[in-house]
What we know:
It is built from 15 helices and 14 strands.
Amino acid sequence: MDYEVVIGLEVHAQMRTATKIFCSCSTSFGDEPNRNTCPVCTGQPGALPVLNRRVVEFAIRAGLATGCRINSGNVFARKNYFYPDLPKGYQISQYELPVCEHGHLDIDAGEGETRRVGITRIHMEEDAGKLVHPDDRSGVSYVDYNRACVPLLEIVSEPDMRSAAEAVAYLKALRDIVMYLGICDGNMEEGSFRCDANVSIRPRGQEAFGTRTELKNMNSFRNVQRAVEFEVERQIDVVESGGAVVQETRLWDVDKGITVTMRGKEEAHDYRYFPDPDLLPVVIDDAWIDAVRRSLPELPRARCGRFMATYGLAADAAGILTGSRALADYYEAAVERFSRPVPVANWMISELLRHLNDDNIGIEDCPVTPDGLGSLLKLVDDGTISGKIAKKIFAAMYRERRNDPGAMVEARGLRQLADGGELEGIVDTVLAEHPAEADSYRGGNRKVFGFLVGQVMRRTKGTANPGMANDILRARLEG
Length: 479
Ligand code: ADP
Ligand code: MG
Ligand code: ZN
């Protein structure tokens, strides 16, 4: 039997606001436990939530960037359950009337195809605190409420993905978008961008969906890929052996590479949702939506397309350079300085990104500025230095945090030697020093030519114009 995989994703993106969603405590990560708390976020009786306007603005941004309708008059609801990291006994979320609905995201589905993944809804909610279980056999657990009330957007997709690879492509595209929008730092390890994957299978050709399981605890793209692939195989085994998939929540066990039952799936009615009486409906007028729309940056997919169309870049190069907004900005600034876009792209991808990867730093911390890189490439372009010397200078600029390649070339005496008379003199000296090799060449041993060129390069510290050095040498040997 041939099965089709069906996947829908729920993503939680932590908003990059300075303060929490319903109080003015700091959202900063990694502070001393319970330092960033107050009566509101620790759920003290009588404390009242006040909505952070910035969170609404961020939600509008996310909604507009994914083609959603923005709902004026959206409503916060209480989602009731007990857990020690949830001091109020309910989470403030949105249920029947979320802030955004009916959007979509286009992803690459391979072979130049795109697939449109529907976005069911985006809603605002608060995060819970964190339980800490020390490894000291004390039998004691602690709770840290610093994360309680930190703003999240939950972005729920339609069950439109058909493979683990598509799920990962969707997640990558969505993460790029929220990072471009500046609303989420996208850090998956720290949990600022996390996802639950809903997975089911059905016999190919069948319309009705199969029973889904929900996978949690995957904190990297690679783990999402592995977890979904494992789960699909598991479900096929269950069905093939005559069983039925049970609707449940399963945890991804990274070390074992398997998913395990965590709990039976709760239904919405288990949570006894109702509108939060402490918060008014959020009214978003058209003027606000328009203002946010005007402030949206160009999004990664559009920018990638523009890089291909206006700069003549190949799809993979454009994809790499638009991988982050900062990298794309860097590229465009460098092109402004040196207006040959393809060599700039090649240099960034081969030299610059290699240096950054070796040091494990981002473009934001690159010691070479776009101006510096542009100036260096100009020197290659106008023949002041060769490409080979340029690589050396680039490494020196990077190491010494300098951005004056012209002066560096002069100080190191690396200006390209393209003076015919001078080169002729050097060629003659080399031939006089290596009469045996010269004779060997004249006797038909063409291989020795490379050696002689090498000698000219050595004498000129690699600065001889390679084309001229070749021509003069050949003329001397054959003339
Ligand atoms: P819940 O909170 O119960 O998980 P949501 O509506 O928040 O419900 O999310 C349901 C998610 O599961 C959505 O992303 C949806 O696309 C996905 N989904 C629903 N049915 C299936 C299915 N049969 N197979 C795979 N994914 C599904
Ligand atoms: Mg769910
Ligand atoms: Zn607080």
